[in-house]
Specification:
Mean pLDDT: 76
Largest sheet: 4 strands, antiparallel
Distance between the termini: 59 Å
Low-confidence stretches: 1-12, 448-529
Strand content: 15-25%
Length: about 625
């Protein structure tokens, strides 16, 4: 077969039998061409297709390739002959092709404690004793070095279950190392255990006169580590490691302590929660100097001493006489937490507070939030869309109890003092407070909402409402997720002052405004007719430039104006006037969208398109009934 006759694409749907004829190659040198691979791999059998994957923009090789042989034996021989061989400059890796998207995730086993020289073919042969193995993969770092973990994918869940049961009584070893096997879990399902804790800001800032002496700083860090280890040794707890460093910005020491197991770490974290400090950091400079004398100074990487006892003795003696002795462990902002992946584990003490008025200062919000507990850190930020939620802040409470109290008492409408302050600090007196999820969890939560909550579904067979404009089609009030803000939206061209496509809506007051409802005052002067608002804000650019004025008009009129502006945008997609009316009616439904959410529709094309698609789906379903 000539190279030019080889097909350049894999079959769109590959059967299990076809997968046995395909190999996947990675870590290819940039200079390797498809001709080069063809000449090399045709030695082991007839090739049906070959493809080097390339970047769509640069058309440069990604260092990966797929080769399909005529027979499975050829693919197996290619793996044995070429895996871990040097092609030009790089050591390539040859693996069986495997479509992970079609695999049964419950038939996947996580392998831990692999040796550095783990052999994939030997592992595959070993695991094949327990069932049909589709793939064995050992993970590597960015330099290509094998790590100590990987995965084995079985064809059937039963085979994976049987392997897990068997290794409980008959462990598997590979090249002298006992393998640890467990059922694969998705990232969101993993229970992340940690045997280490962070103790932050364990003492007051180090005085400048000591901070300027490099060897004294090194001695203080070393002294702290000896004090902590000595405490746990006296209390019968084995510490695997203790690292102490003085933060260069705050000049306060922090420590990471590693225990034998996660239970010990949790127990010591509970002590911090209950006492708001840890007894291991309550000592003195005199005791620190005694321990340094006992154990001797630490050594540098070149085996030289980091400092001599004589160089640090005077500073430690002065410190011992000072009532601000750093080794007393006194701190106003002591903080603690487990050492774990911040991408997976949220901290319930870190809270996002939103809807803060623009003129409110950091001191005001800190004084208010401090009423509920000890605030360790507070950061004020402008939101991405400051026209709606002018400011937001991230507040870190010292303990879980402080955080729980804040999240409970701040919503107590019976507390007159709290309610009064909320009206001064938050827009409409409405607090928005949530635990800040990790980045990974926010992404997963967004996907869950997207999959489980169609924005136009009928929750619990609720009565369908009529759209706020002409037409007899029943429109359902949807359960809406919060639409994310976006940028880069094409602005609508001015359409000039004209009437909207639907009559005016009746006023509906949001729930949080009803709670703080004031007596209705009689009109003091000429009432502005709703129609004039549509003429006044005849283009979205006018709404943007005069946002402060726009937000002062009645809520129902705000919705009418935005509905009028949305009409053309939706019509450009739907191409049907009646259907457009119905979709727009859904989008400005006051029971589902806040004004800020509707404004976001003008700035996020993708989100608006999703709403339009779901609205059209609902219309189609209702028409077919």
């Amino acid at each position: 077969m000539q190279q030019k006759e080889i097909q350049q694409q894999l079959p769109p749907q590959t059967t299990p039998q076809q997968m046995k004829t395909i190999i996947y190659i990675e870590n290819l040198d940039q200079g390797i061409s498809e001709d080069y691979l063809y000449r090399k791999f045709k030695e082991v059998g007839e090739i049906q297709s070959l493809k080097i994957t390339k970047d769509k923009t640069t058309q440069k090789s990604k260092g990966q390739a797929f080769i399909t042989f005529a027979h499975p034996d050829s693919a197996e021989e290619a793996r044995k002959k070429f895996n871990n061989q040097v092609f030009i400059r790089n050591v390539i890796r040859v693996k069986p092709y495997f479509n992970y998207h079609n695999a049964d995730k419950k038939a996947n086993i996580f392998i831990n404690n692999l040796p550095e020289d783990a052999d994939i073919l030997e592992l595959e042969q070993e695991f094949s004793r327990y069932g049909t193995v589709q793939s064995v993969d050992v993970h590597r770092d960015i330099l290509g070095k094998q790590l100590n973990y990987g995965y084995v994918q079985f064809e059937k869940k039963e085979d994976a279950d049987n392997l897990i049961k068997r290794v409980m009584n008959h462990p598997i070893t590979h090249k002298g190392k006992l393998l640890k096997l467990e059922q694969f879990k998705a990232q969101s399902e993993r229970k992340v255990e940690s045997s280490s804790i962070y103790l932050r800001a364990i003492a007051k800032p180090l005085p400048q006169k000591y901070w300027d002496q490099e060897k004294v700083v090194r001695a203080i860090e070393y002294g702290w580590s000896l004090i902590i280890k000595d405490y746990f040794q006296k209390h019968g707890t084995q510490v695997k490691d203790c690292f102490v460093k003085i933060d260069q910005h705050t000049r306060q020491p922090w420590s990471m302590i590693s225990f034998e197991n996660s239970e010990q770490a949790k127990d010591n974290l509970d002590i911090c929660e209950q006492q708001r400090k840890h007894p291991c950091i309550n000592s003195g400079a005199h005791h620190a100097l005694e321990l340094i004398n006992k154990h001797g100074p630490p050594v540098n990487s070149d085996a030289s001493e980091a400092f001599s006892i004589a160089e640090i003795t005077q500073a430690f003696k002065e410190m011992a006489q000072d009532h601000n002795d750093t080794f007393k462990g006194e701190s106003e902002n002591f903080f603690y937490n487990m050492v774990y992946s911040k991408h997976l584990n949220p901290d319930d003490r870190l809270i996002l507070v939103q809807n803060i008025k623009e003129e409110v200062t950091k001191d005001q919000i800190q004084d208010f939030l401090s009423k509920f507990g000890k605030v360790i850190r507070l950061t004020i930020r402008k939101t991405k869309n400051p026209r709606f939620q002018v400011q937001q802040c991230f507040v870190h409470y010292q303990t879980m109890e402080d955080s729980k109290r804040a999240r409970s008492e701040i919503y107590d409408e019976n507390n007159a003092e709290i309610s009064k302050i909320k009206k001064e600090i938050f827009k409409d007196g409405h607090v928005m407070m949530n635990i800040l999820l990790s980045k990974t969890m926010r992404k997963e939560f967004k996907e869950v909402k997207k999959q489980s909550q169609s924005i136009f579904q009928n929750p619990g067979g609720r009565q369908l409402l009529q759209p706020p404009f002409g037409g007899n089609f029943p429109v359902m009030p949807p359960q809406m997720p919060f639409p994310p803000g976006g940028q880069g939206m094409r602005q609508m061209p001015p359409r000039g002052p004209r009437a909207g496509p639907f009559p005016m809506m009746r006023t509906q007051v949001p729930r949080h405004q009803m709670m703080n409802k004031q007596p209705i005052q009689p009109p003091m002067s000429k009432v502005v007719q709703p129609q004039s608002f549509i003429q006044e804000f005849s283009d979205y650019t006018l709404v943007q430039s005069r946002m402060e004025e726009f937000l002062k008009i009645p809520l129902a009129d705000q919705r009418n104006v935005l509905g009028n502006l949305l009409f053309q945008k939706v019509f450009d997609v739907v191409k049907d006037k009646e259907a457009t009316k119905k979709v727009v009616g859904m989008l400005i439904d006051p029971s589902q969208f806040e004004i800020g959410d509707i404004l976001n529709m003008f700035e996020d094309n993708q989100e608006l398109q999703t709403y339009i698609d779901d609205g059209l789906s609902l219309i189609k379903e209702e028409t077919q009934k």
